[in-house]
Write a structure and sequence with these properties.
The chain has nine helices and 24 strands. It is α+β, with helices and mostly antiparallel strands. It folds into two domains: 261 residues, Zn peptidases (Aminopeptidase), CATH 3.40.630; 121 residues, 2-Layer Sandwich (Alpha-Beta Plaits), CATH 3.30.70.360. Strand 18 and strand 19 form a beta hairpin. The radius of gyration is 23 Å and the shape is elongated. InterPro entries: Bact_exopeptidase_dim_dom (IPR036264), Peptidase_M20 (IPR002933), Peptidase_M20_dimer (IPR011650), Peptidase_M20A (IPR050072).
């Protein structure tokens, strides 16, 4: 009989932290997770073409299927010297688990995996644990998982940190590029060239106009757009550049499409630059990224991660919040959105599967060199997962039965 204690789950999390797994290089950590699925006695264990790892615990009847999801990849650690504790040692100190992935997301991944094993097939429906690749770069893994159809859940629980609350959605994220073009030339004779930088002032004015006019949602707040990068080519300082690429980070509301974003920028530019100077051109496009999974699956990805929102009074949200409760005091858990994007955009925003989130950890520690997981909070959250799984399974089954 495997040890399903909280301490065993944290030991597993420490093992995972010790295996660096940036997007595209999750193979070793995937192997470790698959081995843990086997050791914990999952009924089915597999790896799909994208490199996602999937474990299933079969239910005792024909109840709804609950998918528990975390991701295998992590962001870069930065300068290890800037960390209080080494980023890949999984140090336990001062009541915290420290390291890259401690709360985003290898700590919660371990807790969810063990919580699934705790259910032990006693629930009527299947519990599927699917940990996905490339979440940090737009969610290729979850997108592939659901498009392939090997897993067909009725409800999804995302293990991104919620600090004990129940999260029901978030804005999406898009990356848009504005490309300014001219003609390169030697800087000693600027009259022979068309400097792409000359367009920059009016383009920035147009982008400020777009940024100031964003839609808003009562729960998710406003969409936001910011210029986050400017690349100039050629990069030599004695050459008039022929290309300037501006990167826009756009936090978008659910339902927003790539065409919507490109059209908004294009319209603003047409107002500010109705006639382009001779020798110049402007292009607006979605950023693309060539992504290759560790299994060799290749995709050229449009960098749009969808947003989603489940109504606060949705039966699954209400049942989930009641099952979690409050760590201190009485009553149901607080229901709110995340401030950042998750793979829930693919499960709910695109595929329409009711999706909620619950995990220990504070958002302010994510992607920093202070990343840590409070062990007391993690212990409490581990104890709440079985009740949460059962509650959303029951609610989803009721909804399915009345459909």
């Amino acid at each position: 009989m495997p040890d399903l204690s909280f301490d065993a789950a944290i030991a597993f999390a420490r093992d995972l932290i010790r295996i660096p797994s940036p997007p595209g290089a999750e193979g070793a950590v995937a192997d470790r997770v698959l081995a843990e699925f086997e050791r914990l006695g999952f009924d089915e264990v597999s790896r799909d073409a994208a490199g996602n790892v999937i474990g299933r615990i079969r239910g005792s009847g024909k109840g709804a299927t609950v998918l528990l999801n975390a991701h295998l990849d992590i962001v870069a650690e930065g300068d290890p010297a800037e960390w209080e504790h080494p980023p890949f040692e999984g140090v336990l100190a001062d009541g915290f688990l420290h390291g890259r992935g401690a709360m985003d997301i290898k700590g919660p991944l371990a807790l969810m995996t063990y919580a699934a094993a705790v259910t032990g097939g006693r629930l009527p429906g299947d519990v599927v644990v699917a940990h996905t690749v490339f979440e940090e770069r737009g969610g290729l893994g979850m997108k592939h998982l659901l498009e392939a159809g090997e897993v067909r859940p009725d409800v999804v629980i995302i293990g991104e940190s919620t600090h004990g609350d129940l999260c029901i959605g978030h804005r999406g994220r898009a990356e848009v590029e504005v490309v300014l073009r001219g003609t390169a030339g030697h800087a000693s004779a600027p009259e022979r060239a068309h400097n792409a930088i000359d367009l920059l002032p009016r383009v920035l004015e147009a982008l400020a106009e777009v940024s100031a006019d964003q839609p808003s949602d009562d729960l998710l707040g406003p969409a936001t757009m910011a210029v986050t990068g400017i690349d100039v080519s050629p990069g030599s300082r004695n050459v008039i550049p022929d290309t300037v690429v501006l990167a826009l980070d756009w936090r978008v509301l659910p339902g927003t499409t790539s065409d919507d974003l490109v059209a908004r920028v294009r319209d603003a530019l047409d107002r500010r630059l109705p006639i382009l100077p001779e020798g110049h051109a402007v292009e607006v496009r979605m950023a693309l990224e060539e992504q290759v999974t560790y299994t060799g699956l290749e995709h050229d990805r449009n960098l749009l991660t969808p947003g989603f929102l489940v109504a606060p009074d949705h039966p699954i949200a209400v049942a989930g919040a009641a099952a979690i409760g409050r760590r201190e005091g009485e009553g149901a858990a607080a229901i709110r959105p995340w401030t950042f994007a998750t793979d829930g955009g693919w499960s709910c925003g695109v595929n329409g599967i009711p999706t909620v989130g619950f995990a220990p950890g504070e958002e302010r520690h994510a992607h920093t060199n202070r990343e840590r997981l409070d062990l007391d909070e993690a212990r409490w959250a581990y104890g709440r997962y079985p009740a949460l799984i059962e509650a959303v399974m029951t609610a989803a089954g009721s909804a399915r039965g009345s459909a």
